[in-house]
What we know:
Radius of gyration: 30 Å
Strand order of the largest sheet: 1-2-3-4-5-7-6
Distance between the termini: 40 Å
Oligomer: single chain
CATH architecture of the largest domain: Orthogonal Bundle
Shape: globular
CATH class of the largest domain: Mainly Alpha
Number of domains: 3
Amino acid sequence: xxxxxxxxxxxxxxxxxxxxxxxxxxxxxxxxxxxxxxxxxxxxxxxxxxxxxxxxxxxxxxxxxxxxxxxxxxxxxxxxxxxxxxxxxxxxxxxxxxxxxxxxxxxxxxxxxxxxxxxxxxxxxxxxxxxxxxxxxxxxxxxxxxxxxxxxxxxxxxxxxxxxxxxxxxxxxxxxxxxxxxxxxxxxxxxxxxxxxxxxxxxxxxxxxxxxxxxxxxxxxxxxxxxxxxxxxxxxxxxxxxxxxxxxxxxxxxxxxxxxxxxxxxxxxxxxxxxxxxxxxxxxxxxxxxxxxxxxxxxxxxxxxxxxxxxxxxxxxxxxxxxxxxxxxxxxxxxxxxxxxxxxxxxxxxxxxxxxxxxxxxxxxxxxxxxxxxxxxxxxxxxxxxxxxxxxxxxxxxxxxxxxxxxxxxxxxxxxxxxxxxxxxxxxxxxxxxxxxxxxxxxxxxxxxxxxxxxxxxxxxxxxxxxxxxxxxxxxxxxxxxxxxxxxxxxxxxxxxxxxxxxxxxxxxxxxxxxxxxxxxxxxxxxxxxxxxxxxxxxxxxxxxxxxxxxxxxxxxxxxxxxxxxxxxxxxxxxxxxxxxxxxxxxxxxx
Length: 591
């Protein structure tokens, strides 16, 4: 189907250009012969293009087979334009290249009296005796070869070293997020000291840190069970430890029911991971739906670079072994909690007049009892939005304190949607943190920004801030089920606080100013993510082989999702340029 569609798009252009290229063909051949000739050329050239693509990069080429999900993906990823353009170049170059070679050989033989080309007789174009001018043919042959080489270069997947140096853009170094590290450093934990597969069984101890969990064959469920944990192959011996006592259980809501399960870790003692703040609680995110393993990593590491996001979760890829069995690629991250070094709002004593809290927006009542553990406020479109508490715990909170927090958030909600008093609103919320959070969510195309996975907090003596960022499974243009087409040309915020804030001139002006300040950082982060995809490539393929069979939808293929993520962000930043530039410059009522 894809070949037929692309042929329909390409054939008229190829025929027209070829006729214009060689007008004399009209004098000797019927149009029907010319069209039939190039119909054949079209199919042959396209088959050659896709065949060569498969030879150079099979995993990318599979997205062209007749599969509606695959077609929707390549449409959203921009593949149609890219490879149809390549096919068009080859379709114009190769026929002329071949015809000139044949013509050159035929004319040479005719001149020498050895043979006469039959097609020349049929078309009344017998070669004349004497030396033929070869200047044009030589130039044409030369540029045809150059063109073919150029298209080959475009199609081939090149694993070259990036020319962007670590110091050429502003990202956190090893002591913060371990984005770059010496992966050849000697590990203090030997490969033979624990029972996991060796390199000849498909696991290469070179590119990814390894986390070994041993529950002594106890089954991991909803309740914590005892385990020991070893961290090795980090590239920095100071980060590594062996057989640390801990507990483990399942985590997540929908994701805990998937074949590849996420986990919550709770160490016996505060434990630092990769040089970060020491805590007892950590999480292992499975990314079953995101086989690129880039969405959460990209969002969290970008948030680490934004100064108005005072806390952003750790994001480190690790390969996990459970009781000696390889479990694939996971991402180690912070457990979001009110604690020093994380969401730092915990106080010795609750104060109704100087509130401290951490809450999360959700779209249902699953996290507690209404009026005691959760509360509800209307959205911009009067849809129920629920807020659950991360801090304080319901056991520590009096009804008066609950009511005080509810009233604070309700006032913020009313001020945003009514657009009545931005100066008063600015005394209650940290607008800069809202803007950074908002721009990052929009950049990654986070659908859930309207109804869930939106965290906010307030420390005593401070304003309410947005963050930390969390859970980007539904981001980057697609949900876990991959049931929607790619890149939106509008805001993802449609029924939330940010949409309400866009009614205000002052807020819009601040968004434009902030985007000018951090846009280059966002753009360079796309390069960082592309480089990261190279680092984890082999690990993602091992994970894909373990958890996703070849019979599953092609969109679960790591290479396809990786290209989709990078393509989405590359297009999204351009869309955001236009959206932000065209924000209203006066107070208007948003539709």
